[in-house]
Amino acid sequence: MIAERLLFRLLQLNAWILLLALPCALLPFAWMDAVHRDMLGLGDLANVPLTRYMARSLSLVYGMHGIVLLGVTLNWERYRPAVPYLAKLHIALGAAMLAVDLDAGLPWWWAVSEGPGLMSYGLLVLAVNRFASAGTTTSRIGPIQG
């Protein structure tokens, strides 16, 4: 029961973190440039249509992923069996992002936090899922949303 609740909370937390990306799609480009240049130290953000499109669409994709995870938590009994697949997708995405980060020449702190962070989260969810599955014969755990 504790593992099941932890699993639920891990997905719920991830959903809310990802949803924070949605408003970023509306940020003025000058703000994005300031963060890129001043806070991240990555230089000027190219003010070209493709960069503007990619920055905004990435925020929307992260937000969409958050909506999917929130949907799983809002109908836990129905979508609980999808949790291991979502965890494996996080692991695969983390490996791909690490390769992209290294190829793009991003700073070491970016490369070691993004991809490995996603992979670690996916592995954690798989581990907690294993404990939760071993402790029950059904996914029914009652109302968790409260």
Descriptive account of the structure:
The chain is an all-alpha fold. It has one domain (2-135). Helix content is 75%, strand content 0%. It has helices at residues 2-19, 29-39, 49-74, 76-79, 83-104, 108-135. Helix 1 runs antiparallel to helix 3 (49-74) and helix 5 (83-104) packs antiparallel against helix 6. The two termini are 15 Å apart.
Low-confidence stretches: 137-146
Strand content bin: under 5%
What does the largest sheet look like?
none
| SSE series | HHHHHH
Using the CA coordinates, give the radius of gyration.
18 Å
- Number of separate structural domains: 1
Q: Could you say which structural class the secondary elements and strand pairing correspond to?
A: mainly alpha
- Give me the number of helical elements: 6
Q: Which geometry do the CA atoms define? A: elongated
**Helical amount among residues, as a percent range?**
over 70%
- Overall mean confidence score, pLDDT: 92
Record field, number of beta strands: 0
Query: What is the first-to-last residue Cα distance?
Result: 15 Å
Provide the fold topology:
Blueprint: H1 2-19, H2 29-39, H3 49-74, H4 76-79, H5 83-104, H6 108-135
